[in-house]
């Protein structure tokens, strides 16, 4: 609301309606009679303003946001389980195949074997939904006896586990849906369908890429990294259940484009090169996550700006990306991946 209706504003307006011949000073009978009513009205105005904000997708939150987005078929994504790579060894470090469905634990989190990837290498699923399943790396202990097992280790994240979808993420998907109306299997439909799969961070759609009726969907994961094969397969299977009859759908992962940053910097007194390098790497990673699959280059000017904003950096020279003092061009299916930050003084 344009005017903030506080107790003081309301009470003053109420007292203005009382004839001047009546004592309206604080502590008077009329003042003490009107003050509680003014307080209740101020609370009512506050509740009315809150309800107004909760009625719009751009300002709503929590369960009210869910009710708003559900009208357009956009529902909050539940927490999902992490998919991890497990390594298993027998005597003399020989790869060991273990039973599908066997369970292992590490630091209080349990994982179950789901699929054999190669000799002694298995896809494992965390039993606890959420991002917590992404964090642990190291030895695993079997929860049941496994014949011949000498050592087990939890390795790479195949598909990141996700916490319950945040309001910001749900709102972004909702706004994309209403601002890009879908219609009978158009490009907006395929992008929306891909992003309904837990773990998919975004998608780009290429209609008619291989002739009439063909559609290509390029996806990346929630960390803005190339999608794992299991996520690609899950997305393909889901889209196949909702696509129009006759459409030939291909789902692939975006490819990673390595980005190596080098520069010579001048540091302020008291700053260590290693700390500055780590701070710059963090800010560049955040920038690259904003460079979606719809972008066609990484800006060296943006990187230079981030370098100057890094605490401890006074100035820089010889900034290059992948060995050149120029933007890095991205192909239509590429995502930037920071592989190194090398600074010198």
UniProtKB/TrEMBL annotation:
Domain annotation Baseplate J-like central: ranges: 183-253
Domain (Baseplate J-like C-terminal): residue spans on this chain: 262-343
Similarity remark: Belongs to the Mu gp47/PBSX XkdT family.
Stretch forming the signal peptide: none
Listed name of the protein: Baseplate J protein
Organism encoding this protein: Paenibacillus paeoniae
């Amino acid at each position: 609301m344009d005017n903030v209706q506080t107790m003081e504003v309301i009470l003053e307006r109420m007292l203005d309606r009382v004839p001047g011949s009546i004592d309206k000073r604080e502590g008077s009978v009329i003042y003490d009679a009107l003050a509680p009513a003014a307080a209740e009205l101020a609370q009512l105005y506050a509740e009315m303003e809150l309800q107004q904000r909760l009625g719009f997708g751009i300002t709503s939150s929590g369960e009210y946001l869910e009710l708003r987005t559900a009208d357009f078929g956009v529902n909050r994504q539940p927490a999902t389980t992490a998919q991890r790579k497990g390594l298993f060894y027998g005597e003399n470090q020989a790869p060991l195949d273990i039973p599908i469905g066997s369970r292992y634990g590490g630091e209080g989190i349990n994982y179950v074997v789901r699929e054999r990837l190669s000799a002694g290498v298995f896809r494992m699923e965390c039993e606890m939904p959420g991002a917590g399943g992404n964090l642990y790396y190291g030895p695993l202990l079997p929860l049941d006896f496994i014949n011949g097992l000498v050592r087990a280790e939890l390795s790479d994240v195949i598909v990141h586990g996700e916490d319950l979808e945040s309001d910001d993420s749900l709102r972004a998907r909702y706004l994309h849906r209403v601002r890009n109306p879908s219609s009978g299997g158009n490009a907006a439909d395929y992008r929306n369908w891909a992003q309904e799969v837990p773990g998919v961070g975004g998608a780009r759609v290429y209609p008619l890429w291989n002739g009439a009726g063909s559609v290509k969907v390029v996806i990346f994961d929630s960390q803005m990294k190339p999608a794992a094969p299991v996520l690609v397969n899950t997305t393909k299977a889901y889209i196949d259940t909702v696509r129009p009859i006759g459409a030939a759908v291909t789902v692939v992962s975006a490819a990673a484009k390595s980005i190596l940053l080098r520069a010579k910097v001048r540091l302020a007194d008291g700053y260590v090169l290693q700390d500055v390098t780590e701070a710059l790497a963090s800010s560049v990673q955040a920038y690259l996550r904003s460079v979606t699959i719809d972008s066609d280059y990484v800006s060296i000017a943006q990187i230079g700006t981030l370098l100057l904003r890094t605490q401890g950096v006074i100035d820089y020279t010889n900034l290059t990306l992948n060995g050149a003092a120029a933007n890095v061009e991205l192909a239509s299916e590429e995502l930037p991946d920071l592989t190194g930050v090398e600074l010198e003084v």
